[in-house]
Write a structure and sequence with these properties.
This protein folds into five domains: 59 residues, Alpha-Beta Plaits (2-Layer Sandwich); 269 residues, no CATH class; 68 residues, 3-methyladenine DNA Glycosylase II, Chain A, domain 3; 81 residues, Helix Hairpins (Orthogonal Bundle); 198 residues, Heat Shock Protein 90 (2-Layer Sandwich), CATH 3.30.565.10. α13 crosses α14 and α18 packs across α19. Strands 13, 14, 15, 17, 18, 19 and 20 form a seven-stranded mixed sheet that branches. A four-stranded parallel sheet has the order 6-5-8-9, sandwiched between helices. 39% of the residues lie in helices and 15% in strands. The chain has 20 helices and 20 strands. α8 links the parallel β8 and β9.
Length: 707
C-alpha cells in the first residue's frame, strides 16, 4: 500500500476525524498534524471520505492512464460491476464514452467475479471444514494481514475479480494488452502492485478519476452513443458489489438462514466479525464475506452526492436489467468460465501491531492529562480513539499526542484564564488593539518617508512664492493669489510636521515634572491657540478641592476649568505631555461648537497603581458610534474641512505609549466625551522609555477602551 493515501498538511485542521474513522488507526498525529503511516495503511480510503477539509488524498493515476492511451498500444478498460453508482449517464453510454476516449476493449469485471465464484466453489469443496475469509475486498485482506495476522491462513488463496478479469482479457486478446481497472476502490491501487500479481493490471482508476479523464478529453457520457461490453460476458456476478452478492451469485450455502455463512459490511462490523472468529481448526465450515465499505457503491472512489441507497439501487437495476436482456436474447449470454486460468494467490502475514505497553506506562500517560483514577477516564472519543487507555497506548507507540485530549485542554485553558483573571471579552479587545497597533506602526513608517520627501519641494514652493511676492509688489491683482499659495504651503508644512511627530522614533526625555505646573501650562496654551467668541474659550485654574487664585474664566460660552492634586509630581517628558493635553483640550473645545458648557481637565494620583491619571471632559456633541473605532487612526477626523488633519489623537496616542501609559475614552452622543490618560508616576533606575511600537494591555474596562 506504499504511498496510496497522503496528507495535504496545509488543509489539516486538527479535528482528528481521520483518526476516529480509520479502522487501522494508521494516522499519526505530530505537532497537531495528521499524517498517514504508509506501512500501517490498509488503503480503505475512508479518511478521504470523512475529512471535510480535503486534507487526505489518494494516489492520482490519471496521468499514467493518459500515457497508456496515448502511446499507441492496445488498452482495455476493466469496468467494476459497481460502475453505475459513479455515473449519471446510462451504463451503455458510459461504455461508449470509454471507447471514445481510446480504450480498445471495455470488459465487465463481473466476469472475473464469475471466475472467482467458480474458484471458491472448487476450493470449498476441497476444504469442507474450517474458517474461510473471502478475498474480493483488498482492504479486508490488508487488515487481516496487518492486524489479525493469525487469520492470514484463513484467507481463501484466490485472486480478486479485478486480477481474474485482467488474466482473462490477456488470455483472450493477447498478453500485449494493457489493462486499466476502473472502480470505486482505492485499495486496488495497492493490490495492482502486489508481488505475484504485479504487471497483470497496468493501472487503477477510481470512478472519479475516470470522470476526470473523460472530461479532460471533452467527452460527456450523456451525449455519447450507447455501446455494449466486449467479451467475455458476465452474468449473475454483477451483484458482487452488494453485501452478500458473492454468496448470492456463487450460490454457496443455504442463503441468509445458513449458520455457516457470515456477511458483514462497513469497517466497524467487519472488525467485530474478524475479532469473533475462532483462530483454531473447526469441524464445520464457516465462510465470511466481508467488505470494508458498506457495499462497493460506497467506496471512496465514487464522487457523487447521491445517497448510498440510491447508488445501490442503480447497481441492482443494472444487474437485473442485464440479466433480463440476456434472458431475452438482447445481450449475449454469460461466457463459460475459463478453467485453464490459474487464479491462485498466496497471502502472507505482515504484522503491524504494536506491543502492548505496561500498565505502569499507561497510567503514567493518563496521569499527564489528569486521569488518575478510572472514573477520570471519560472515554469521550474526541481524540479519535474509543477509550482513554487506547489513546494512552497510541501515545506510547508514537501515534498520538497528549494534547489531543479535548477535555484536558479545555480544563487547562479555563485554569489559565482563571489564574490570569482575563475574561474572553478582554482578550478579544486586546487582540483588536494589537492588530491596530501594528497598523499604526506601518502607517508611521510610511508617514515619515512621505513627509521627508514632501518637505523639500514644499520649502521651494514657499521660498519662491515669497520671492515672487516681493518682485510683484506693484501687482495688487496677484498679491492675493501669491499669499494664498504661501499660506497653503505653510499649512502643508504644518501637516508634514504633524506627520513627523506621529512617526517620531526619538526617545522621550524623562524628568521630574510638577503635574500642577504641567496642566496649567497646557490650559494656558490651549486658550492662547483658540480665539474667543462662539466656540472659543479662555481659561483659569482650579485646585483639587476649590478654585485657584485666578478662578475659572470663560469666553464664547465655553468655560475651561482645572482640577489637580497639589504637590503631585511624575517622571515624564514635559513638552510631549503638554502637547497631548493641549490636543485633548482643543478637541474638547471644538466639540462644544455652538454650545455652552465646561471643558474640564483633571489630574490626580492612583496610589495603588503608582500612576497619574489625566482626564479631559467636554459637554459637546460626542463621538458617533461608527467613528469610535477609528479615532486613533491617522487622518481620520469628524471635524469640518480645514479644521483638522486627523493627526492630533494618533500623535497623542504615540506619546502616551512611549511613556508606558494608556489612553482611552468614554463618549455618549449629545452628552459629551471624556479622554483618559494614565502614565507611571516614576520609572525604575536605568529604565528606558518606549521608542518603538510595543503593544500594551489596557487596565480599563474593555467597553471603554477604543483603539
Amino acid at each position: 500500500m506504499d504511498g496510496i493515501i497522503t496528507t495535504i498538511k496545509q488543509n489539516c485542521r486538527r479535528c482528528f476525524t481521520c483518526v476516529r474513522d480509520c479502522p487501522a488507526k494508521a494516522i499519526r498525529i505530530e505537532d497537531g498534524q495528521a499524517s498517514v503511516v504508509t506501512e500501517r495503511c490498509i488503503g480503505c480510503g475512508n479518511c478521504t471520505i470523512v475529512c471535510s477539509q480535503n486534507a487526505k488524498a489518494y494516489l492520482d493515476s490519471t496521468e499514467r492512464a493518459f500515457w497508456l492511451l496515448d502511446r499507441g498500444g492496445t488498452v482495455a478498460a476493466l469496468l467494476a460491476p459497481s460502475f453505475p453508482a459513479g455515473f449519471s449517464a446510462p451504463p451503455a453510454q458510459v461504455v461508449g464514452a470509454l471507447r471514445k476516449v481510446g480504450f480498445a476493449y471495455v470488459v465487465e469485471v463481473a466476469y472475473g467475479a464469475e471466475l472467482v465464484n467458480q474458484a471458491y466453489r472448487d476450493y470449498l469443496g476441497e476444504h469442507p471444514t474450517g474458517v474461510h475469509i473471502a478475498t474480493a475486498c483488498t482492504a479486508v485482506v490488508e487488515y487481516v494481514r496487518k492486524y489479525r495476522p493469525q487469520l492470514t491462513e484463513r484467507l481463501i488463496p484466490i485472486v480478486s475479480p479485478m486480477v481474474a478479469t485482467a488474466l482473462a482479457v490477456k488470455a483472450r486478446y493477447g498478453q500485449h494488452v494493457r489493462c486499466v481497472f476502473i472502480g470505486p476502490c482505492v485499495a486496488k491501487k495497492g493490490e495492482a502492485r502486489y508481488p505475484g500479481v504485479v504487471g497483470v493490471v497496468d493501472e487503477v482508476l477510481t470512478l472519479t478519476e475516470a470522470t476526470t479523464v473523460l472530461t479532460a478529453r471533452g467527452i460527456d457520457p450523456a451525449q455519447t452513443p450507447a455501446s455494449d461490453f466486449d467479451p467475455p460476458f458476465a452474468g449473475e456476478a454483477r451483484v458482487f458489489p452488494i453485501p452478500g452478492g458473492m454468496l448470492e451469485s456463487a450460490r454457496l450455502g443455504g442463503g441468509i438462514l445458513d449458520p455457516e455463512l457470515i456477511v458483514v459490511s462497513g469497517h466497524d462490523e467487519t472488525i467485530q466479525a474478524l475479532d469473533a472468529l475462532p483462530e483454531g481448526e473447526t469441524d464445520k465450515a464457516l465462510l465470511v464475506e466481508a467488505l470494508m465499505c458498506n457495499g462497493c457503491y460506497c467506496g471512496p472512489g465514487v464522487q457523487t452526492l447521491e445517497p448510498a441507497v440510491m447508488r445501490k439501487r442503480r447497481v441492482i437495476e443494472f444487474a437485473a436489467d442485464s440479466l433480463r436482456r440476456q434472458g431475452s436474447g438482447e445481450l449475449p449470454a454469460c461466457d463459460e468460465t475459463d478453467t485453464s486460468l490459474w487464479l491462485g494467490r498466496e497471502y502472507t502475514s505482515d504484522d503491524r501491531r504494536y506491543d502492548q505497553p505496561s500498565e505502569e506506562k499507561i497510567r503514567e500517560i493518563l496521569a499527564r492529562t489528569n486521569k488518575f483514577f478510572p472514573e477520570d477516564e471519560l472515554n469521550c472519543g474526541a481524540c479519535g480513539y474509543p477509550t482513554c487507555r487506547a489513546k494512552a497506548t497510541a501515545v506510547v507507540s508514537g501515534m498520538a499526542e497528549e494534547a489531543m485530549c479535548l477535555p484536558f485542554m479545555i480544563e487547562q485553558a479555563e485554569r489559565v484564564c482563571h489564574e490570569l483573571r482575563v475574561p474572553w471579552k478582554d482578550l478579544r479587545e486586546v487582540h483588536r488593539h494589537l492588530i491596530n497597533t501594528e497598523k499604526l506602526a506601518s502607517m508611521g513608517q510610511m508617514a515619515a518617508g512621505v513627509a521627508h520627501e514632501l518637505n523639500n519641494p514644499l520649502s521651494s514652493i514657499l521660498l519662491y512664492s515669497h520671492i515672487l511676492g516681493r518682485k510683484l509688489e506693484d501687482r495688487p491683482d496677484l498679491s492675493h493669489d501669491l499669499k494664498l499659495v504661501a499660506d497653503e504651503s505653510e499649512r502643508c508644512k504644518k501637516i508634514i510636521g504633524n506627520l513627523l511627530d506621529f512617526a517620531r522614533q526619538t526617545r522621550v526625555h524623562i524628568e521630574a515634572v510638577s503635574i500642577d505646573e504641567l496642566v496649567r501650562s497646557a490650559v494656558d496654551a490651549a486658550a492662547c491657540n483658540l480665539s474667543p467668541g462662539p466656540g472659543g474659550a479662555t481659561a483659569g485654574g482650579a485646585g483639587r478641592n476649590g478654585a485657584g487664585p485666578h478662578g475659572p474664566r470663560s469666553g464664547g460660552g465655553v468655560e475651561l476649568t482645572l482640577e489637580v492634586t497639589p504637590g503631585l509630581q511624575a517622571d515624564l517628558d514635559r513638552d510631549q505631555m503638554t502637547q497631548v493635553l493641549v490636543n485633548l483640550l482643543k478637541n474638547g473645545v471644538e466639540a462644544m461648537e455652538g454650545r455652552t458648557g465646561v471643558v474640564k481637565l483633571s489630574a490626580y494620583e492612583i496610589p495603588e497603581q503608582h500612576r497619574v491619571h489625566f482626564a479631559v471632559s467636554d459637554q459637546g456633541c460626542g463621538i458617533p458610534g461608527g467613528a469610535q473605532d477609528k479615532v486613533f487612526q491617522p487622518f481620520f477626523t469628524t471635524k469640518s474641512i480645514g479644521k483638522g488633519t486627523g493627526l492630533g489623537l494618533p500623535i497623542s496616542y504615540g506619546i502616551v505609549k512611549m511613556h508606558g501609559g494608556t489612553i482611552w475614552f468614554e463618549s455618549q452622543p449629545d452628552q459629551g466625551t471624556t479622554f483618559h490618560v494614565e502614565i507611571p508616576i516614576t520609572h525604575a533606575a536605568g529604565e528606558k522609555p518606549m521608542t518603538t511600537e510595543k503593544p500594551f494591555l489596557p487596565n480599563q474596562p474593555p467597553k471603554e477602551y477604543v483603539i
